[in-house]
Amino acid sequence: MHSPTLIHRAALAACASLALSAQAQTAPDTPPASEGQEASNVLSPVVVTGSRINAKGFTQPTPTTRIDAVDMEKAAKPNLFNALAELPALQGSTGRTTSTNSTSSGIQGLSSLSLRGLTPIRTLTLIDGQRVIGANVTGVTDVSQFPQLLIKQVDVVTGGASASYGSDAVGGVVNFVTDKRFTGFKANVEAGQTNYKDDKNATLQAAWGRGFLDDRAHLSASVEYSREDGVPSPRFGGAGANGRTWFKNPAFQVRPIGQTGDGKPQYSFIENAQQFQYAKYGLITNGPLQGTAFGKDGVPFKFNYGSNGVPTGTGAVTGCVTPFCVGGDLSGTVGGGTTLGMNMTRQVAYTRGSFELNPDHEIFFTFNYGKVDSRFTPNPGAAKNDNLTIQCDNPFVPASIQALCAANNITSFKFGTANAEFPKDIEVNPVRTQARLVVGANGKFDAFGTPWTYDAYAQHGQNTIDIRVANMSLNPRYNAAIDAIRGPGGTIICRNPAAVAAGCVPLNVLGDVPADPAAMAYIEPANGPHQHSRQRQTVASFAVNGEPFSLWAGPVAVAFGAEARKEQYYVTGDPYGNGVSATSPNTPEYPADPLLNTAIGNNWYAGNYHNAEGSYTVKEGFLELNVPLFKSRDMGEANFNIAGRHTRYSTSGGVNAWKVGSTWKTGIDGLRLRAVTSQDVRAPNLSELFAAPLVVNNTVNYQGTTLTVQQRTIGNTRLRPEIARNTTFGIVLAQPKWAPGFSASVDYFDIKVNDVISSLNAQQEVDLCVAGNQEICAAMDLASATKFVTLQAFNLASMRNKGFDMEGVYRFDLGMGLPGKITLRALATHTRSFVTNSGVVGTIPSEAAGVNLGNTPKWKGQFSQAWDSDTANFTLSQRWISKGVYSNEYIECQTNCPVSTVVHPTILNNQMKGAFYWDIGGSYKVSKNLSLYFKIDNLTDVDPVAAPQTGTGYGINPFLYDVLGRQYRVGARMAF
């Protein structure tokens, strides 16, 4: 169902007025929310540092959000990642509802956080300030592998922090802080499901902690198990899963540019899009028999084209725009068959032990084990879009069609099918297993007459990633199996003798005919695509904090340290996907087959994984200073914060990151100003440096001549780090005396990233070489006998993201003898502009702000109204995404449209709706040790907004919109 617009507007107005029009009422003395935004349902705004300096009273200029244990409990999510991803500043995070239409991306089932829409590779995620081994070749971490019950807070630094924390902190840092001295026992049991009675989930968590030896030693541990069943694929036809009626096969009809001189738009949004290049059980797509489909028992029938279309015999259909008609026979639609939410199982174990050598020095260890097992269906069947040829003498071809072949003097016809006769859908099963050990020490000492603190650790982590794909077909075997003839004795055999010798079993794909199990076993061997990856990370780090001397306004604080790190990985693919270099192609699991390409692999319909390996080392040191500038009754107090870090990579050499900022607590009651500018870096990751090598043939146009070239895909070890300039300044009003309990902040951010690492296709590289880019010219040879173009990543693109973060929070007692407190909150991120320049010849900079097909809407907001007492709480909250467009480069017009161009296509309607969600939750303390709670997300069951594609696509955008519907959860928490 859809929530009424009037309700949306009323709620927005109410939240804004409640949060920003504070009444002067008595409130307890609580720390101000002056260091940035807070999560939805946050109870207590607190000051956090987001800096390596831990001096008492220090406030650093970079805005930071804190989410504490109470906030996490109120979110009541099976996975803490889901609560964090709802923060307005976090945009583009990946989870179990994203990338479910992908087989080979490698990020399926990966819960990774992204700030500012800069993607997870530019957000640094830490535990207790320590790096965590990546769960993907790009180096991003999987939050699902983290311990969650012993997390006492999460700090989100919403600004560049490379100088303080290191590489990858371009968008910011998310730091998970564990409860290092937890004592007692606590447990959580939770269960839930959606309004559609699917995605049933259960979570079990327990934690224990105790001190020993007069509390000099401490040991704590936690175990967690959670299971989310996901939403099953409804398979073909476009019907939503389990009664979801909102999916309507959305798509763009795109007319050829050459036809747009008629004043009509090139792009049009349609629903009930029908791919006319295939049908559920097969369709003749060209020639005199075009429009003949096959149904039950292979009986041919006239296909019902949408748009009242009539086949032309040339592959086109009148009234339709390739590849779509509107309406007609939609039984073969595959877009709605993509899994909406993965089946995911989490198993996590964590322990920490510490021992005080004396009151000033402690040694510790932590060990974390996390296993995340995901399963999903990217699409039903294995659609073949008008790319098959069926011979008329194929014995599976009905006699009536064979007669028509003879009458029309043809021997074959073009054919497309969704392969709905396949008994099982493709299933992708990524399993990520992390083992991470940290040993370290911390403490304090005196030097130069002042106290100092230190923190040192060594860490080794390994993530083993296995991606297995079941029910996947081999293209060469499929092509051989569907090409059948009559053999000796009238039996049906494969036409190719070599295929017959290798065990080919013919397959009938014409009509709704049960697939021969032997044929399916031939084209879909039990050992499907498989990628095995192992990533290792070894880190040694130390940091020292102190206040060596004082100035007129107070002590100068300093932090310094160094870190050494090694990152390495290797990946192996199965020989049918990778080629013979993976292993012998004549093993029992992967027998030799003359039909298969053993040189480069790529034999699977999808999921062709390739071998790769690589490593690099990092050495770096940092220094951070906080200098008090002045402190007086009239002027207030101000500090100057500066940090620098030098990093040397074994691949790209040295690079510097720095930060300069200041905070000023003015003499005006409650008013604080802050500003910071920094240079931040992201080093090229392992997959960019050491991509899997692959050689295929391709064609390019070079100075007007078409050339056949070797397309060589490799990594680029000459890549340079991305360099970002990150500037933030803000105004904070923190609980002034005239409005106790009220705080608000507004921060402006401007992030510019240069030398952005991006990959190009062969023609783009050739065009850039012709335009004079000598670095890219060095990656090809178009003059010799063996012509080649090397595909690899280059430092070509740039990005710039600008906007505002805003927060208002007001807390007050109910008064009049009524129990509890009320907390009203409104927070939002406004992305004013997000421009990307690809650096590719023939393109223009693209504006992503407000493109709701992407992940950076103009506005993303959260609002909450909470009542809390000693025994119960209740929270009503809202999530808001503003309306947007399909693309800022489109020109919207209905008539008299200009001629469409590649960079500025015309479109009939460029508007994409936003979304407004209501959530409610509450808890009741039954006894001292037991609390019961509930949570309902998407209370009004708001449908996801259609996200049209130009081909067979997902039809939704899970990066922005809720795709699961109303969700119910109940649970119990115990503490002793």
UniProtKB/TrEMBL annotation:
Gene3D superfamilies: TonB-dependent receptor, beta-barrel domain (2.40.170.20), TonB-dependent receptor, plug domain (2.170.130.10). The keyword Cell membrane does not apply. Keywords: Cell outer membrane, Membrane, Receptor, Signal, TonB box, Transmembrane, Transmembrane beta strand, Transport. Pfam families: Plug (PF07715), TonB_dep_Rec_b-barrel (PF00593). Residues 1-24 form the signal peptide. It is a multi-pass membrane protein. Coiled coil: none annotated. Its main location: membrane. Residues 436-939 form the TonB-dependent receptor-like beta-barrel domain. Residues 60-173 form the TonB-dependent receptor plug domain. It is found in: Cell outer membrane. Belongs to the TonB-dependent receptor family. This is Outer membrane receptor protein involved in Fe transport. It comes from Roseateles saccharophilus (Pseudomonas saccharophila).
